Amino acid sequence: MAIIQNINELKERINIVSKWDHRDLYNNVIDYLKSSDAMHVYVLRGLRRTGKTTIALQALISEEAKKLGKAAIMQVEDGDRISLLKKDIKELYNNGVRVLLIDEATKAVDFTNGSAVLPDIFSGMGMKIILTGTDSLKFYFANGNGLFDRVYEGRTTYIPFKEWKKIIKLGDLDTYIEYGGTLCHEYTEKDKVDCFSFANSTKTYEYIDSAIAQNIQYSLETESGRRSFHDLFKLYYDGLLTGIINRIVERENHYIILETVQRKFFPKDLEDGINNIAKDTWRNIPYETFNKINIEKLINNLMKSLAITNDKTLHEVTDEQMQRLKKYLYDLDLFVPDKTYVISPQYNSDPICIEDKDCNICVQPGLRYNHAKTLINTLTNDTFIQSGKLTQQ
Questions:
Q1: Between the CA atoms of 273, 316, 312 and 249, what dihedral angle is there, to the nearest 10 degrees?
Q2: Beta bridge pairs of residue 44
Q3: Longest CA span, the chain
Q4: What is the DSSP code string of 212-235?
Q5: Which of 104, 111, 146, 373 is most buried by its number of CB atoms within 10 A?
Q6: Which pLDDT value is given to residue 303?
Q7: Rounded to whole angstroms, how far apart are CA atoms 156 and 136?
Q8: What averages of pLDDT result for each successive group of 10 residues across the chain (393 residues)?
Q9: Structural contact between residues 90 and 113, judged by C-beta atoms closer than 8 angstroms
Q10: What local confidence, expressed as pLDDT, does residue 109 receive?
Q11: CA–CA separation, 313 vs 52, rounded Å?
Q12: Measured between alpha carbons, how far is 147 from 156 in angstroms, rounded to an integer?
């Protein structure tokens, strides 16, 4: 049963969010409220802790919202149906509500196909409807079905440094690289671990599992059951999906190839790191020294830290499975396409693209940083490196 509250009933929460700086997307929501459009709803979608509900609440208490009439919030619960919420929305309209936030809208089991009623009927009646939800993939599915072309969309997952620093008052570039990707309005230097989602490997794994892997799984489960999984069902059923997603995240900042998940796991960063150190003749480290590094132990520790399974029974991931999973990660806005460039020796020349294919950049800097930190910790905690000359060098 959805929980419905008038905006005036949330004075304590409103008092808090009103003091926070706005994300840039706030202006887009205000433009929607100011417009005479009577055919669209506004969707704020993105991964957890990226400011969706905060933006919506700040819009609901804006002067533009007050000019339209009363504002209310509808908190959708698991098992709710849009078809059954229509009566509640109609009652809100009759009571003067003209701005409605439907929070966690994607929890409605019939959201994908049933959401069409929101722009078709209630927007047409003069209501401004803002939808939020952590299930970003389900919003994507709805855009191809119920909502179609009747939705304005704001994506919150990517938080550029300039915007992040405006909100995280004490955040500098180093903090952004290490923890960036999610927001923490009450940030202080003393509570980084409690505040940021990528503060350590445990929290990072929990975030990937709940905000990304389970996000995908939940969207597929609630669409049409097993059929919606297509060729990913066996990976999901065998409990391999989270590990595969983790592995893709570890590599996707450069490129993604089928071999990444088919071969025995050996992170490219570790391989390159050892080879690069070995090639640096100025370090005076005999090459045979590297033969003493317990690579198997390093790999096992790293795999354990990243929750990656790897044994003789590891399922092969087909090209079709990889492409579908990669597409879902793009739909979640976790990755954006980019190209790899190098600077020419001639200082006055433009950068030269060295890749024919697009590279894929992870938009969560803290996520990538944590994988790198885990890798370094695994290397430095190796028994040989701790006690040998390699550590000294």
A1: 30
A2: 132, 154
A3: 81
A4: IIHHHHHHHHHHHTHHHHGGGHHH
A5: 111
A6: 59
A7: 10
A8: 82 88 96 94 92 95 95 92 92 95 91 89 94 84 79 93 86 86 73 76 84 80 63 78 73 45 53 64 60 64 55 62 84 73 42 49 83 69 54 39
A9: no
A10: 85
A11: 41
A12: 19
Is residue 317 within 8 A of residue 336, CB to CB? The reply is: no
Asked whether 159 and 180 are in contact (CB, 8 A), the reply is yes
Please say whether the beta carbons of 98 and 131 come within 8 A: no
**Domains in the chain with CATH codes:** 3-155 (3.40.50.300), 161-195 (no CATH), 224-392 (no CATH)
How many angstroms separate the CA atoms of 117 and 124, rounded? 10
Non-local (6+) Cβ contacts of 367 within 8 A are 181, 198, 204, 207, 208, 249
d(C-alpha 49, C-alpha 181), whole Å: 9
Do β-strands 341-342 and 352-353 pair in parallel, antiparallel, or remain unpaired? antiparallel
- Residue 16 tokens, joined: 């808090």
User: Residues 6 or more apart from 191 whose CB is under 8 A from it?
Assistant: none
| Contacts for 267-274: CB closer than 8 Å, 24+ residues apart | 267/302, 267/375, 269/372, 269/375, 270/298, 270/299, 270/302, 270/375, 270/378, 270/379, 273/375, 273/379
* CA 340/CA 24 separation, integer angstroms: 28
Distance CA 96, CA 91 (A): 9
* DSSP three-state, residue 151: strand
- State the residue for tokens 């047409």: 124
pLDDT of 282: 54
User: Residue 175, by phi and psi: left (phi above 0), alpha (psi -120 to 50) or beta?
Assistant: alpha
Indicate whether this model's pTM tops 0.85.
no
Tokens 């706005």 label which residue? Answer: 22
Segments of 80-142 assigned E as strands: 97-103, 128-133
| Angle of CA points 182, 188, 189, to nearest 5° | 100
C-alpha distance across the termini of the chain, in Å: 63
pLDDT in tens, 309-353: 554 444 567 878 888 888 888 888 888 776 544 444 443 444 444
* Number of neighbours of residue 96 by Cβ within 10 angstroms: 10
Angle at 93 between CA 90 and CA 97, to 5 degrees: 140
